[in-house]
Amino acid sequence: MSNFGETLHERPTKVDELLGSHLMSSLDKLDIVARKIFSGKTQGERRSRRRGQSVEFADYRQYSSGDDLRFIDWNVYARLDRLFMKIFLEEEELTLGIAIDISASMEYGNPNKFDFARRLAMALGYIALSSHNKVSLFAFNSNGVQRLSGLRGKKRTRDLGQWLLDLLPTGGTDFIEACKVISTSRQGRGVLVVLSDCLETEGIKQGLSFLVGGGWDVFVIQSLSPEEVAPLDSGLEGDLRLEDAETGEVCEITATAPLVAAYKQRLHHYCEEIREQCTRVGAGSVRVSTDVDMEQLLVEYLRGRGLLR
Amino acid sequence: MTWVTPSAGLLLAAIAVPILLLLYFLRLRRQPLRVASTMLWERAVEDLHANSPFQRLRPSTLLILQLIALLLVVLAIMQPQIEGTAPSDGKHVLLIDRSGSMTAVGKDGATRLEEAKEKAIDYVDQLYGGGLFSSSGGETMIIAFSDYAEVITPFTDSKQQLISSIRSIAPTHGKSQIGESLQLARAYMTNIDPENEGVSSSDSAHLELFSDGLIVDINKQVLARGETLSYQMVGSSEDTNIGIATIDAKRPSESVEEVQVFLSLVNTSDNSATVDIELSIDSIPVGVQEVIIPPQLDGLPGKASMVFVPFLMPNSGVIQATILADDILAIDNRAALVVPPSKELRVILVEDGAPILQSVLEGMPLQELKVVHETTLEKMIQDGKTAEYDVVVTRDITLENMPRGNYFMFGSPPPVEALQSFVSGDAQVMLVADEEHPCMRFVRYEDIVVTEGYEVVFDGSVQVLLEGSNWPAVMNYRGSGTQLVYVSFDPMDSNWPYLRSFPFFVFNTVEYLGRSGSQFTSSVKLVGDSISELVQLGDVVQIIDPEGVSHPVSVDSNGVAVWGPVRLAGVHTMEIGDSKEVAYAINASSLESEVASVETVTFGTKKVQSAKSDGASYIQLWPWALGAVLAVLLAEWWVYQKKVSHPLVKTWTHTGGNS
Description:
Chain A is α/β, with parallel strands linked by helices and about 300 residues long. Chain A has ten helices and ten strands. Chain B folds into five domains: about 1-85 and about 620-645, no CATH class; about 90-235 and about 595-615, von Willebrand factor, type A domain (Rossmann fold), CATH 3.40.50.410; about 240-340, Immunoglobulin-like; about 345-515, Class I glutamine amidotransferase (GATase) domain (Rossmann fold, 3-Layer(aba) Sandwich); about 525-585, Immunoglobulin-like, CATH 2.60.40. In chain B, strand 7 (about 190-195) and strand 8 (about 200) form a beta hairpin.
């Protein structure tokens, strides 16, 4: 068995290894951005659909007994001789959902796609917790969806990290079923970041439709390893019998330049197809290679794509 | 094409070809590799979908090239070779026939000699053509032959020299003889090793014969050990020809001022031919006569003889007969004859004893018969007066010296080195005579009895005309401007004077000697003969050949101008000094009239087919097969590289997607 694609990097075993102190300091000034306005259960740092006690005026309504007299608009009463209540937009907390693909295909590459997803999830979760947002975590594969909900405050960062460390990539991918489960969860609505290699032959668009329909502002981060992006540059050669990590299917190839060129053409078309499907359902997407620098990814790319500010 | 080891090649093919095909049927043993997903690979890869050990054999350029290479290797192992004009290392001798029949013109307008030269040049091109597997070609020698052989180029490996030499070969009208060529070739092939006490070593050579196969002496030749022969025929075996075989003329005895011409003609076609023959004297036509020549029969040419009506020709001249029809060979369509003027002889006689010779000579139609004493003759010899007479006749006279002239002598031996007195001869009878010789015509010798004479010894220049039971009785000698008929006994010591044959013999001999050099028959020469003439010392002599080309002629110390061998048929003119001219009629040999090329020549006992070797020479093809294998493998490598070459890989960006 060739060791092509086998993870040779050091694997994270501690929470600190998922998120270093240097990166942590860089993330403190970032926050999650939602492209939609959501209503939260608790007061937070962003606008909510719920009318509340913020300073931003929203509407008027007629007074009914029992209302707080402080919100009566006396100027209108003077002109119209009727009592109207001023309604203000209430600032609520944002829920950041992070869905991690933990199928077997993620356990591949240098750097490892699964490790990359865990580090990215850790970083995004830290940003959200630091900004007083709620964080919900989902891990999905063909065996179902694991979740960790209701994390609030920076003190839960370690819980977040430990939950990620405990994940184990295995099985196949059932993206549609996972999306159904996530979309029907009552953990609140907000921004849902999907971390996956998206190597799913069917159901990407349908799954995303479930998520968007469930109220999530979906952002797909498709991560691929360098071995998948440029096989020849990564040392792929010879007559090979490829075995699919999830399905066990076999494909025999001779690693020739024309074949790899055809493969890269297919990959390019496939990634474009993913991007188009995301666009059609209103989801954002970004494709990254796992060898990209994490700080650069967060500070430059995801900021540029509007996920962070 | 023949195969040296066909079984080995077939065995290899039987094993290797199925194995190669099986390798293509069998799937490769591939290294297992776990990947995240095969989804994208499946769409890109060609050889998917096979769980069985064999796959469908699909058209593959590589497979075809490998099969070709394998089959070429098999071919090389079988060692193919082709028989024939096999240029190879070693010595080659190109024998190019330039005889009269090679001047025959083919359908394309080129002569056979030109065709032979082109073939010889092609052969040289093959020898020294160069190329990946060509040999050095060894050394090659060129010999042109007709009735004599000439080394055009000794052994050399210079292609340019060989080709220019071949182009320089000029035609002759002589007959075709190859024996001398072979002797020359073998002489050049024999090397003397000075370091080994002069021991000679001879290399075997390949003889390449370019000819129409009409070679007179080819049956008498034998290939030496190691020699090989190839024959490249030129011309066509279907060619036919009409020609003049012989020409003769004589002055009728009843009218010496007239000339009668005789011709014989040949026809080598299967149909009889009717042709007009034109007769001309000194290029002025005097008559045309039709003749029908029968077709060839059983391979022998049809022959016809014709006699022209006698015509008045008191003076000398050149008679020429011409066939007024075109055929492929022009040289035998014309024959010539030089006719001397009619004359009566002047004879001087010295006779000791009874005047038996005087009695005979007085009965002959001579212009002058001068009978003198021995001393008078000696004085005339000293004064050179005998040159004014056509024949000097002596009987039992011993001469001190014999200046140039014609002598008819009886008894005492003449002062000629070729004839030396040995002992007195005993009585004898006559046994054998050369009855074809003009002197012995109508001479019955059986009754002659001689009581005594001179038994002489002689060298090869002497021709015996009458041989006795103990010693030669009558001899003919020619040399150094002297012609002599010597009877080695005194007629009075025999019964010959009383026999009828004696006056016939004397008459024949005086006529023969007196008209020697000016008789019609002696004036006819064939191509290959030499021309000689007595001239004054100091004269500038040159020959003008039928093509008008002048050739200087050297004169020896005896005043004899000799030029030859004559190369072309036709009238040659010898210019002597400023005023005298002598014409010579040179005719082609009748052997050259046969023009149908021979497809198989018999060299001794070996038959050699045209354009084929005698079986000892082959072109080996296996090096070419191996060269082709190399080329196919290079092509296969190129195709493979084109399939697997690494084009510039486009850099994949780290990020993408919608923004």
